[in-house]
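YM 10:42: Nucleoside phosphorylase domain-containing protein sequence, as discussed on the call
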Amino acid sequence: MPGYMAVVTACAQEAALVYRLLQSRQPRPSPAGLVWQGQLHQQEVVVIQGGMGPAHASQALHWLSQQYPLQGVLSVGFAGALHADLKAGDALLVTHLLPAQTATADTAARGLWPDARLAHIAAMAVAQAAVVSHSGTLVHTPTVVTQASSKQALGQRSGALAVDMESYSIGTIAVQQAIPFAILRTVFDTSNEDFLMPMGQCTTANGCLQSWRLLACLLAQPSLLLALPHWWWASRCAGQHLQRWLRHFFLLLQQGA
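YM 10:58: structure's back
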């Protein structure tokens, strides 16, 4: 099928995992964020780094759909685990998306469902990539869930495996515009960890990390310095597994799976 596969990411680290695989890595600014365009396994790909949160994700996909003929869209990046059996780097095979306001087991019939073909390719790709995976629901929240107790409570209330801030908005726009969509995300923070790093305060609107702001936050809260090695390891693990998964996904897509 002709057209571009759109990859929507929130931050610089997530975007880099994708654009480093492309033959062309030259970014250009846009009203909705930084954009990279290139090929991966002969598939035309456009990547956007749109910023954190649902509003930025919606704006990013709206802009892409106006600028490119899209054959599909992927929500790519990291997520927070809501159950103890999910570890850093595990892949999420999302079968159902829940919005925050209906995130209870009684309302699980509501929500969005990823495109069956793209979800099937994602499942085959994660098996070929030899990444541990879990199938289930991803729930949306408008802000980062930082406390372990809050993550565990959200998991119990919603029945979801994991949480993120962007995928539901991306899926909503995709469904409205009849664009097939899927989610490729790996676990960054587990359900028993407090994630207190002030990333929202240290990133720009389009998701670029501002090192001086991060340094200022760390100096203001020296205890966070002790957590840096762990979060560096978690991001590396989640990123390596996600990038390996993406390689296999686009290879299978090119092969007509």
